[in-house]
Amino acid sequence: MTLSLGLGGGGGTYIRFSPSINSWQLGKDEFDLKKIVFDLDTIKTGWGLVTEGQAPQWIWDERIGQMGIKPEGDFKRGFSVRVWLGPDRGWAEWSSTGTGPKEGFSQLWSVAGKQKTENDGKVVMCAYTGSTPLKVGKGNTRVPNFEIIGWIDRPSHDDIEDEAPTSATSRTAPPATGSKVVPPPAAKKQADLANMDFG
After folding, report:
1. How far apart (Å, rounded) are the C-alpha atoms in residues 106 and 112?
2. Among 47, 70, 85, 195, which residue's CB has the most CB atoms within a 10 Å radius?
3. Ranges of each domain in the chain
């Protein structure tokens, strides 16, 4: 089954991936991203107009992945999602109309979207594993890559405590023989996750 965000063809704290310099920015400051939490319940897709020095303009789809009519002008398909950057940086928004960021987020969604139903109400914690060069027409970009670590309760603005992440791959059904399921090895406590290096 293929899940699509239909990305082909704000205000507040925000992050940005810059393919040209292969780096992440929080506001206007560059930072080293290592871990990131995505709140997939906040995904929006739509048409965006991003102009240097101006606030982006967005016309959001009624439902994610259902492309609305393209407005006049230089609008491009894009996305927005709320992300958590750890106890020190808190929540931010990641939005983009860039080819590399859209491809990276679409790749994450193709995996995490399938696990979302069984992790209802949770958010997905990922490791940022670097970026991959991508040729686009006569130009080049970079695709940010993410690896799913687990699913956790939605963090508050302050910290995360008390709960271990669950992995969609660690759940198994009891065999037909009547044996009972042995739980997987204990995952890291959520307090331990708060101490992980978020970059």
Report:
1. 10
2. 85
3. 14-167+180-194
Instruction: Identify which of 138, 134, 132, 112 has the alpha carbon closest to the alpha carbon of residue 123.
Output: 112
Q: Model-level pTM greater than 0.70? A: yes
Q: What is the pLDDT of residues 104-128, one digit of tens each?
A: 999 999 999 999 999 999 999 999 9
Bridge partner residues of 35 (DSSP): 127
Which phi-psi region, left, alpha or beta, contains residue 18 (left: φ > 0; alpha: ψ -120 to 50)? beta
Q: Within its chain, how far is the Cα of 89 from the centroid?
A: 16
Rounded to whole angstroms, the Cα distance separating 87 from 155 reads: 9
Q: What is the pLDDT of residues 77-113, one digit of tens each?
A: 999 999 999 999 999 999 999 999 999 999 999 999 9
**Least trusted range by pLDDT, from 66-75, 93-102, 119-128, 173-182:** 173-182
Nearest to 143 by CA among 85, 78, 99: 99
Distance (Å) of CA 107 to CA 54, 95, 135, 138, 172: 29, 15, 17, 23, 25
Q: Around Cβ 132, how many Cβ atoms within 10 Å?
A: 14
* Cα gap 169→149, rounded to integer Å: 11
Q: How far is CA 18 from the centre of its chain?
A: 16
